[in-house]
Amino acid sequence: PRYLYSFRPGHSDATHPTAALLGGKGCALATMSQMSLPVPPGFILSTSLCARLTSSSSSNSSSTTATPILFPDSLTSQIETALAALSDSVGRVFGSATNPLLLSVRSGAPVSMPGMMDTVLNLGLNDKTVEALAKQTDNAIFAYDSYRRFLSMYANVVLSLPNALFEKSLSDMKSQYDCATDADLPLKALKQLVNKFKHHILSETGIPFEQDVFVQLRNTIAAVFQSWQNPRAQTYRAINHIPMSLGTAVVVQAMVFGNSGPTSATGVFFSRDPSTGVNKLYGEFLTNAQGEDVVAGIRTPQPIVRVTNVEGLSKKNSMQEVMPDVYKQVVDVSNLLEQHFKDVQDVEFTVEKGTLYILQTRAAKRTALAAVRSAVEMEGEGLISKDEALKRVDPKSLRQLLHPTLDSDVERDVVATGLPASPGAASGVVALSCNSAEFFAQQGLDVILCREETSPEDVAGMHISKGIVTARGGMTSHAAVVARGMGRACITGVSSMTIDEEKGVVKLDENVSVKEGDCVTIDGATGQVMLGKLETKPAQMCEEFKTLMQWADQRRDMTVLANAETPEDVRRALSLGAEGVGLCRTEHMFFDADRIVAVRQMILAEDNEVRTDALNKLLPMQRQDFTEILEVMQGRPVTIRLLDPPLHEFLPHEQHEFEAVARSAGVSVDVLKARADASREANPMLGLRGCRVGIVYPEIYRMQTQAIVLAAVDVARKSDKVVCVHVMVPFVSSVDELEIVRREIDNVASTILSSSENEEVAHLVQYTVGTMIELPRAALTAGEIARQASFFSFGTNDLTQTTLGMSRDDAGSFLQNYLKSGVIDRDPFVSLDIEGVGMLVELAAKEGRKTRKDLKLCLCGEQGADKDTVVFAQKIGLDAVSCSPFFVPVARLAAAQAAI
Ligand code: PEP
Ligand code: MG
């Protein structure tokens, strides 16, 4: 079988390159070769090898010996043939002691996983070839600099030795020779370093550094494939739901050298600004540096495009000024790549003695703001269709746009400043390591993770943090890329900051220090760090966001409603595009201080008289609640759910609470306490809740129906417009329950609507009765239930809890474990369990519509804005989803994508 695909400018073995086979990097290199762009030639080992090579070696594949790794037979010969062709095309020979070819070996999965897997550069150097390289380039410093880099990468990736060992020697050497940067090290120091590194390898592994370049290559290929299985790659896959079965490809390419002198450089550019989406090339580079230096944030890089400071003066260090010819080529390549891939590109390049080489291009990770803006603008430029623009934005990421920012009126005492790497304001306690971030997060605290620089090991810690601050690195450093992808606020390159992890202290600048656990605020949009917690204000939506949302609304079939119960939430939902209220949880209205006493009196009442007294107190309050909501919604549909509390939750606990109820009800505290004891339940979530309350105490639902219909009448009279209310009965498991409750509702409603004082407005009140489907029995008997319901709303929170037998309140304790160990790949309370709970929903929808063709169907559990859940809802023909106000835009976009 074919494992290997060669490429060079103007040619690719793979005629129709795909990321599935060649990995994202390999696919892009093959495509750029076909476009005749200046890529260094090389070959790709396909993803199909990954499973074979990783399963055939043990978890610690990185053989410290030269034991042959089990390569499929034909692979070795395919590599040899490809190497010969590669030698021909660059005019150098792998392993030659006069004219050596050096290689880079890089991983590249079908889905971008920036920095998660391994790379080895300068492969093919040994004691002989380094001398040849020195002679050939007339640059011994460059040759030995490359050799020491190769030694440490090989030791780390192939031999699994810790990086720290080599970094320590490097920094010792820099102080010994009094050098500020790596690039300043003299030849003598580099040679000493090479010896030291070889010595580390021998003393740590017991085996001398491998001088045979073919064995080097073989071991490195195996190790880079194996890095698909390293813990940080696993974490990244778990967070991003990337299946392990995809595997990585490995790209072997002729080296080009960004570290071969002052006219050489390495860098990264984005075809548009990945932070704001502005259509302007954005990037950074480092002269006389190699590969990973920019991405890893080792030195703070220079800008590609000229930047001017406040006085309008340029610092004269941009590529535009320093390498104007290369700059022009960069701009051309950027345009060509965007035209071809029709998306914002993130490009790695190297300049070798003034010649530009493109090493990689991929769709740029970007903030939600940048995603929205570039998608809408690309549609305007005729690059992509509206549908494509809608697909470009991850619905979930829209939450970032709704994130709070710091109020510009609030005084800011800025103690440190860095690069504004990812927008959003965040306050939290300082954590200096991922472990302490996790510790603080477990206490329910918001965390700001402060690091020298972040490495891929930090992904898990970044994920649980609200914001990230690093001392080193630029806008394209690992921290910045990952934070933008995750939607976390992030500031990089805070050069005044120093961190003492051992003492748990961060010096933000000369005079200001904070300890781990102290609170700080960061503004990812400006790069400012402030002490303490600052007030934030709600997010502002940009024009492009509004445009995209309009397109989404035109495209989607499903209605998007909100779960909201206060006039404030309802107003917010409306402003975020909700078309009505899909779920008004009336029990949430009962917690307010002014009514909790009456609610408790209602629950604990021993006789009808006391209960009626309590209900009489509650009626006007509920009527007022509903009136406000109906007024805000101006005729849009409002679904009000009758009381569904675990009654238990409302019971008084404290003496003074009992006393207040006793006063209000006119009974003794002792009697109340006895009633409360009798009402406590071991399993309140499965106890006296939902329609069971309505059946046991019919006067409660009667009062609520009265309040709803009276409010509807009030609003209809005042507005002279149609008012649309849907009364929803919760926690039904049989049609008989619904029938009993419905009879009560209809009685109350018709009494009010047929009374003579309401005669002239009754026709304006549209009211229907429906039910939640949130218990398995309800789903299974939905055909029956539909006889009594004009709509169903799927309560997938309870339906998930009762179908999986997992408590929605307590499942967190083991769900984390399940997610980490891969027992499940999604939290079923976040994304619907389609194979299980989804089956019940689908069945109920079908059976319900068999009974009643025009049965309206909605889904109102917390999964209502989750993309996959919405796609499923569309597929099975639901009419609407309902979700909390901030998720409404998310659901609108998800519904549009579901319709495409
Ligand atoms: C549900 O169960 O999915 C639902 C929406 O109702 P609640 O969360 O109030 O139980
Ligand atoms: Mg429920």
UniProtKB/TrEMBL annotation:
Keyword NAD tagged: no
Coiled coil: none
Domain called PEP-utilising enzyme mobile: residue spans: 446-527
UniProt cross-references to InterPro entries, sorted A to Z: ATP_grasp_subdomain_1 (IPR013815), PEP-util_enz_mobile_dom (IPR008279), PEP_util_AS (IPR018274), PEP_util_C (IPR000121), PEP_util_CS (IPR023151), Phosphohistidine_dom_sf (IPR036637), PPDK_AMP/ATP-bd (IPR002192), Pyruvate_phosphate_dikinase (IPR010121)
Domain (PEP-utilising enzyme C-terminal) ranges: 543-898
Residues in Pyruvate phosphate dikinase AMP/ATP-binding domain copies: 20-378
Documented EC number(s): 2.7.9.1
UniProt keyword Kinase present: yes
Top-level taxonomic group: Eukaryota
Residues that, per the record, bind Mg(2+): 774, 798
Cofactors that this protein relies on: Mg(2+)
UniProt xrefs under Pfam families: PEP-utilizers, PEP-utilizers_C, PPDK_N
Binding of substrate, residues: 585, 641, 774, 795-798
Protein keywords: ATP-binding, Kinase, Magnesium, Metal-binding, Nucleotide-binding, Pyruvate, Transferase
SUPFAM superfamilies per UniProt: Glutathione synthetase ATP-binding domain-like, Phosphoenolpyruvate/pyruvate domain, Phosphohistidine domain
Active site: 478, 860
MF term (GO), any: metal ion binding
Family per similarity comment: Belongs to the PEP-utilizing enzyme family.
Entry protein name: pyruvate, phosphate dikinase
